[in-house]
Each structure stands twice: as C-alpha cells, then as structure tokens.
Amino acid sequence: MKRILIVGAGGQIGSELTMLLRSIYGNTNVVATDVRECKFLRETGPFAVLNALDANSYGYIVNKYKVDTIFNLVALLSVVGEKDPQLAWKINMGALMNSLEVARQYECALFTPSSIGAFGATSPKDKTPQDTIMQPTTIYGVCKVTGELLGNYYYTKYGVDTRSVRFPGIISNVTLPGGGTTDYAVEIYYEAVKHGRFTCPISSDVYMDMIYMPDALNACVQLMEADPSKLIHRNSFNIASMSFTPDIIYREIKKHLPGFKMDYKIDPTKEAIARSWPNSLDDTCARDEWGWAPKWNLADMTTDMLKIIVERHARGEI
Ligand code: AKB
C-alpha cells in the first residue's frame, strides 16, 4: 500500500485528490498538507500545516509518516503569476526543488503537474505534439518548462521516479481555482446558476483545452500506478479531453438554462495568455504509454456541473 503525501492539498486539485486517494489507499495512508489549516481535510485523515518552501519541515513530515509517494500541487497560476513574477518563481520553483530533494533523500516517487501553459505562441497550435517547441511567454509557463526539465534531470541523474501530466484547464465544483487563465470556464457555471449571466474575460473564439476534474484525478492515479517499464516519457505527458471556446461553452449551458446571457469585457492579460496557448493537445503518448482515456465530454460535464452547482446553491453553500 502506498504512503502518500499531498503538498498544497487545500487547492482546487488537492481538495478533491486527497479524498480520492484516501478512498483508494485508506485514510491513514494519505497525509494532506497545506500552508493553511484545512479543517475539512483533517476530518478524514492525517493533516499538517506545511510551508513547502521550508525544506526541514518538509523532510520531517516525509520521514515521520514514512511517505513513499509525493504529490506536489503547490503553484501560483498563470494570471496571478504575471502580477508578481519573482514571487511566482520563488514559490513554484522553491516548492518543486524541495519536493525533488526530499524525494531524492527519502526515495519517494514524485508527481508534479505541468500545464498547457508550458507551451507558447511558437508551438504548433492544433493537436500540439508531445515533443515540440516550448517557448512560453508567462512566468508560470517558464516555471513549468523548467520543472519538466528538472523532473527528467532528477530521474536520469538520481533515479527519482518523477512523473507528470500537462493539465488543461480543470473544471470542478468543489474548490474554485484561483488566478488562472482558464478559470472563466469554471466561473461561467457558478454565475449561470447564481445570476443567470456572465461577463467573459476572453474573446468568444479562443479555443483552449479543458478537462473535467474526475478525469484529471484519474490521470494522477493512473500515471502514478503505471508500469515504469512502459514509460518512454515522464515529465510531462500531454493529456487531452475537450477543447472549446467561450461561445461554445455558453451555448452548451444555454441548452439547460435558456435565459442565460453572456457578454464580454476582455481582460488583456488573460486574453494574451489564452491566445499564446494551444487550441488542443495531441495526447497519443499518454494513451499508448499508460492507457490514458478520458471519460467526460462537454455535454456530460455541463449536465453534471449544473446539477451539482444548483444543489449547492439550494443548500446555501455558494
Ligand atoms: C491556468 O489557467 O493558469 C491553469 C493552467 C491551465 O495551468 N488553469
């Protein structure tokens, strides 16, 4: 049985990944940590407050719980990163370096997400290949490309079992994302249910790859369970599920809520980042090397998202 540590467990991915991993590997085998206290994570298993930039405390927790697998989910996202690039580098790379070093010292496997943000305007736009030009123009993307290279370096130099996927924008209904370019595709559902209207910060025709949270979580579990002898790549795999524009998701929501209205107030930072990212990724390598196969499409996801958000709204949670 794996002994897992999740760093940055209070965020959009971690809050749901912790619960899934506890259901698979047992509550006591999954230690959740975050820079802030998270009561809801403490209720179902071990939890510790941990600043991932504090290498000593990080090592202490890995040793204390006899951890063998780390999920490092600490990151400032693309839009917030542009507000303070130095801080984004410090946090994103600091957490990653400490994760790599702790994984090396305590012989742990390490999962760190990369992103579609690792690509830039010079990458092929459609069906972006696994191995191609990567010249991102955000500090977030620069951190992701550096992180991918470092992950591969630690694997070849020290034999650390590093693995990663390039996440599309993740759409979810438990914890809101914070500070990303793809956040609009989450906010639109909440605003549709709560107010019947949404002001979109990105132009109607800009395609980006997106994924529903259950598929994103399965990717984490499946990749970390994959037979290492089958992995030709490691850091980081393209995964893809659906690609749409603001106009396409708007029309899909309107099928359920005919009165829903959307207008546009373009945010120049978000727009520039979105336009620099791929329209869609080619995920053939993930499919071939570890059996990646997403289950959700835009129509099914929209039905599920609206059902859950309507229920949460009715309970007064949002
Ligand atoms: C962001 O928009 O910054 C993230 C991502 C795609 O990595 N959601």
Overview of the molecule:
There is one protein chain. Helices cover 46% and strands 15% of the residues. It has 318 residues and is an alpha/beta fold. The chain folds into two domains: 4-168 and 212-238, NAD(P)-binding Rossmann-like Domain (Rossmann fold), CATH 3.40.50.720; 170-210 and 242-280 and 296-314, Alpha-Beta Complex (UDP-galactose 4-epimerase, domain 1). The strands form four sheets. The protein has a six-stranded parallel beta sheet, with helices on both faces. Strands 6-8-12 form a three-stranded parallel beta sheet. Strands 9-11-13 form a three-stranded mixed beta sheet. Helix 7 (184-195) packs parallel to helix 9 and helix 7 crosses helix 12 (298-314). The two termini are 37 Å apart. The model has no long low-confidence stretch (mean pLDDT 98). The structure holds 2-amino-3-ketobutyric acid (AKB). 2-amino-3-ketobutyric acid is lined by residues 77-78, 115-117, 140, 167, 169, 177, 180-182.
